[in-house]
Design goal:
This protein has 10 helices and 12 strands. With 274 residues, the protein is an alpha/beta fold. Helix 5 crosses helix 6.
Length: 274
Amino acid sequence: MNHLPPLNPPQSRAAQTNPPLLAMQDLRFRYERSAPLVLQGLSLEVHGGTVTAILGPNGSGKTTLLHMLLGRLRPQGGEVLLENQPIGHLSRRTLSQAIALVAQEEDIPFEYAVLEYVVLGRAPYLGWLDAPGIGDYAEAETAISQAGITHLQWRAVPSLSGGERQLARLARALAQRPRILLLDEPTNHLDLSNQGRVLQMMRTLAAQGVAVVFTTHDATAAAAVAQSVILMREGEALAAGPVTDVMTDANLTALYQVAVRVRQVEDRLVVMAD
């Protein structure tokens, strides 16, 4: 495998003076003791008000990394810090109020209407026996509107198309009001219109101070919305830094193991495989 020299991750002016919301330090992880490492020696900082793309082919460890950032998986080496505190020392409630994940797929065992499903995102702010109140439903309706699915709010979630369910998952995460939003391949199953909606939503959330981190194998989508990008292959970060510095012909050819060309088209980077 080609190893590329890592670049320094970019920092906005705010990031230069503020500590990172999330920091990963020398993470190592394997699913079984005898299995190969899925993540190895990965370090990264994520600041509020930024969009970071984790770009790599299938099986590179991107989803595993997101679950580790969420606290669902614990590393065998290194640690994840949320505002300088190890996430293993924090309660699930605290983590759920700070971090939301939009997964690629999710089993929904009940016939929830979209509004009922999205209001589940308010659970981190409720007591054990508390029912959602008027304010919680208002938050859910706002999130549904942001996701562009108000016309679906009384539809049963299992009856939705794959793309519609993806937008419902996004709305539920928005209802959590997280400071850090993790998205796993968020534009999968979406048509071009809704892909654009999701990418624009990432920009809007970052402008509001949210740290947005998303995985993708679509290099053009990463270039369209992210300020910084991490190239991952076989559990390692091959390179990290500003999109225009990292997403080069040589770097992406090494990442995907095929000849790749990167071209500037109307102020955007377009990635093409030969």
